[in-house]
């Protein structure tokens, strides 16, 4: 498995930056989600972000919420995650990151979860609802198992908080924007660009941005100022409507934005 940091650095040297694709594992079935993740890598996605379905996905948009609820209704279990990561690590060279609400990790046991993820070939965790101040156990365990830990940074974060996030993240910093407040894509881009600049000012090497990106032009725009573009809903919608073939088609179009 390629290291997340090295993958992003390589893509920056080769072109504009990295393309990160999100899919919920287990949607619509475990097999289909694995096939779709492989398809998007073959179509040009550099890093896989597998979402772990959760019964109360309050931080996700409606498309992703519906997909994760469907996965749970279809019988998805946390153990299936490690099956998916194992199979993907055998099929592709792209790093596989897991995005998970922290409660799911706690339920499994932090060290046990980390051990299973490492054994499966996973690169690390994105933890949207875990702040560095409350992450002492995860910091210790992720060091022990050499796993990436990706924390989120928001425009409301103080410079001091951004410095802490930068110092404790490994792989990249997940840069988010208050899209619901700003209301227009232009404003969201401006807010994200400012946040990326603030992160770089406190020493962040790699910041990756997700802004409801849905096409290659938008990927190119984001990579003008960020190190990576994160796409979720557009890929999940394609999977729901067209299966893995649809994911491949959308990923291929998105990847046009990473070319110099």
Please report the first level of CATH classification, the CATH class: Alpha Beta
Overall pLDDT score: 91
The residue ranges in which pLDDT falls below 50 over 5 or more consecutive positions are 179-184
Helix content class: 40-55%
Tell me what the CATH architecture is: Alpha-Beta Barrel
- The shape is globular
Number of helices: 13
- Percent strand equals 5-15%
Distance between the first and last residues' Cα: 26 Å
CATH fold-level assignment:
TIM Barrel
- Topology as H/E string? HEHEHHEHHEHEEHEHHEHEHH
Q: Report the biggest beta sheet as strand number plus sense, adding barrel if it closes.
A: 9 strands, parallel
CATH superfamily: Aldolase class I
| Largest beta sheet: strand ordering | 5-4-3-2-1-9-8-7-6
Radius of gyration: 17 Å
The structural domain count equals 1
Question: What's the total count of β strands?
Answer: 9
Question: What class, by secondary structure content?
Answer: alpha/beta
